[in-house]
Amino acid sequence: MDVFSAIHGRRSIRKYTEAPVAASDVRDILAAAMSAPSAGNAQPWRFVVVDDRALLEAIPAFSQYAAMAAKAPLGILVCADLTSEKYPGYWVQDCSAAVQNILLAVHGKGLGAVWTGVHPMKDREDGFRRLLGLPDNVVPLGFIVIGHPAQELAPQDRYDEAKVHWNGW
């Protein structure tokens, strides 16, 4: 799959089969995440892979938009270790780039995923912090729910000329 097919074909998948995600695929997906750019090459991202059924089923209680996690085989919580930042505040951009790489890698593997937001919602941050035992210096940005797709969504051309400005507003 070429890069443009991956970008335009990637869709948010919220329904999954019961098939597990192979550990080798998880490793490849995380390697792609860790290839993202980061401010000052600080790489502040940290990842919590969640495949324990009880943990996945507990997530919707504090993160309503991650309800599909209860029936998914896997999720990855993308976090930032604030003690590893070179340029404070850029962790959001750094971790967001890692998330985008995860989404594209998942799609490239023939899997499906959806990015569910955590930061800056304090209740969601606190929920993941309690559930997964995150230390105080680690902030969760987003939870990526992953599995074998049980739905098929067609690619969409989302280009909108009205949102493009050249050489000024």
TrEMBL record:
Pfam families: Nitroreductase. InterPro entries: Nitroreductase, Nitroreductase-like, Nitroreductase/BluB. Keywords: Flavoprotein, FMN, Oxidoreductase. It comes from the Bacteria. CDD domains: nitroreductase. Residues 7-59, 67-148 form the Nitroreductase domain. Gene3D superfamilies: NADH Oxidase (3.40.109.10). This is Nitroreductase family protein. It comes from Nitratidesulfovibrio liaohensis.
